[in-house]
Specification:
Distance between the termini: 26 Å
Radius of gyration: 19 Å
Structural class: alpha/beta
CATH superfamily of the largest domain: Thiolase/Chalcone synthase
Number of strands: 13
CATH topology of the largest domain: Peroxisomal Thiolase, Chain A, domain 1
Bound molecules: oxa(dethia)-CoA
Shape: globular
CATH architecture of the largest domain: 3-Layer(aba) Sandwich
Mean pLDDT: 97
Order of helices and strands: EEHHEHEHEHEHEEEHEHEHHHEE
Number of domains: 2
CATH class of the largest domain: Alpha Beta
Length: about 325
C-alpha cells in the first residue's frame, strides 16, 4: 500500500496596507526605535484599519489568493480550519465567516485555538484528514487581527504585535514529499503569564473589565521569553533527531516571529546559519497564528522541491509545536 503524506500544494498571505512604524509608536508611548529593534528585531508592523473589518477579512484575502494561484474552485474545498486568537466574534467560528466571504459552502469549517502555535496545530489536524482519505483538499489558515486586542498605552506589548493572515492548501502526496512529522505540546500552568483576562466565560465583559483594560493582551514578557527560548529550541532539536536530520540537511527554519532573539537562539541550537532562517519580524512584528504561513508565502519562490523545512512555534497556553516538511512543489 502506498503511504500518503499531506502536501502543501500552495501558500498565500495577506497583510493590510497600513504601516505602524516604531517612530509612530514613539509618539504614543514611552519607547524608542533603538530599544524596540535591539530587544525584538521589529521596525514596523501592519494594522487593519476600517470599521467593521476583522480577522476574517484578512483571512479571506489570503484564501482568495490561494484559490487563484492554485487554480482551485471554491467548490472543490472539503474542509477549512482557521487558527486564531482574535476571532471576529465569540461565535460563529471565524472559519464559517471566511468560507462565506470566499464562496465556500456546505463543508465543515471550524476554528482552532493554540495561540502562536495555532498554525502548526491546525496543520496537524488538516494533515490527518488528508492522510486518512476523508478529504482531498483542505485549507489551513492562520490569521490574527492583533491590533484589536493590543493596548496602545502599554509599551511592553504594543510594540510587538501586528495583523496578517496566511493560508495553505493541503492535498495528498505519495509519501515522498509533504508534512513528514509534527510534534505538539502544551502546559496549562503557563496560562497565567500570557492571556486576555476578560471577555470569556470566566469574566464576561462588564464596565469594570473595560475600565481595568482587561480585554487587552496581558504578558509577563521576561517569563514568556525564558520559556519560549528554551522550548522552541528543544522541540526543534527533538524533531531533527527523530527524523535523523543533521544541520546540513535543513534548507530552512520557519520560526514563529515573536522576538528575533528567540529565533536566533533556536537557529544556533539547530546549527543553522542566518541565511537559512526565514525572518520577517522586522516588517510585520508578531502576527500570532499568521507568522509561519506569512513566511512560507514570502519565501515560496526560493523553495525547491525536496527542501527539508522545520517549522517551530511557542505561544500562549503555553503551547509549543514543531513540524518537519519535505517541500513538494518546485
Ligand atoms: O508570541 C507569543 C510568545 N511571546 C513571546 O515569545 C514574547 C517573549 N518576550 C519577549 O519577547 C520580551 O520579553 C519582550 C520583548 C516582551 C521584552 O523584552 P525584555 O528584554 O524581556 O524586557 P523586560 O520586559 O525585561 O524589560 C526590560 C526593561 C524594563 O525597564 P526597567 O524595569 O529595566 O527599567 C521595561 O520597563 O525595558 C523596559 N521596556 C521598554 N523600554 C522601552 C519594556 N518595554 C519597553 C519599550 N520601550 N517598548
Amino acid at each position: 500500500m502506498t503511504q500518503v503524506t499531506a502536501l502543501i500544494k500552495g501558500v498565500h498571505g495577506y497583510v493590510p496596507a497600513d504601516v505602524l512604524s516604531n517612530a509612530e509608536l514613539e509618539k504614543m508611548v514611552d519607547t524608542n526605535d533603538q530599544w524596540i529593534k535591539t530587544r525584538t528585531g521589529i521596525s514596523e508592523r501592519r494594522v487593519l484599519k476600517g470599521k467593521g473589518l476583522g480577522t476574517s477579512d484578512l483571512a479571506a484575502e489570503a484564501v482568495k489568493g490561494l484559490l487563484k494561484k492554485t487554480q482551485t474552485e471554491a467548490s472543490e474545498i472539503d474542509l477549512l480550519i482557521c487558527a486564531t486568537v482574535t476571532p471576529d466574534m465569540q461565535f460563529p467560528a471565524t472559519a464559517n465567516i471566511i468560507c462565506d466571504k470566499t464562496g465556500i459552502y456546505n463543508i465543515p469549517s471550524f476554528d482552532l485555538g493554540a495561540a502562536c502555535s495555532g498554525f502548526i496545530y491546525a496543520l496537524s489536524v488538516g494533515k490527518q484528514f488528508v492522510e486518512n482519505g476523508t478529504y482531498k483538499k483542505v485549507i489551513v489558515v492562520g490569521a490574527d487581527k492583533m491590533s484589536s486586542i493590543v493596548d496602545y498605552t502599554d509599551r511592553a506589548t504594543c510594540v510587538l504585535f501586528g495583523d496578517g493572515a496566511g493560508a495553505v492548501l493541503l492535498e495528498a502526496g505519495d509519501g515522498t514529499y509533504g508534512i513528514k512529522d509534527i510534534l505538539l505540546r502544551s502546559d496549562g500552568r503557563g496560562r497565567h503569564h500570557l492571556h486576555q483576562k476578560a471577555g470569556g466565560s470566566v469574566k464576561p465583559a462588564s464596565i469594570e473589565t473595560v475600565q481595568n483594560r482587561e480585554h487587552f493582551i496581558y504578558q509577563e514578557g521576561a517569563t514568556v521569553f525564558k520559556f519560549a527560548v528554551t522550548k522552541m529550541a528543544d522541540l526543534s532539536a527533538e524533531i531533527m533527531e527523530r527524523n535523523q536530520l543533521q544541520s546540513e540537511d535543513i534548507a530552512w527554519l520557519v520560526p514563529h516571529q515573536a522576538n528575533k532573539r528567540i529565533i536566533d537562539a533556536t537557529a544556533k541550537r539547530m546549527g543553522l546559519p542566518a541565511e537559512k532562517v526565514m525572518l520577517n519580524i522586522g516588517r510585520y512584528g508578531n502576527t500570532t497564528a499568521a507568522t509561519i504561513p506569512l513566511c512560507l508565502w514570502e519565501w515560496e519562490p526560493q523553495l525547491n522541491k525536496g527542501d527539508n523545512i522545520i517549522l517551530a512555534a511557542v505561544g500562549g497556553g503555553f503551547t509549543w509545536a514543531a513540524a518537519y516538511l519535505k517541500w513538494g512543489s518546485s
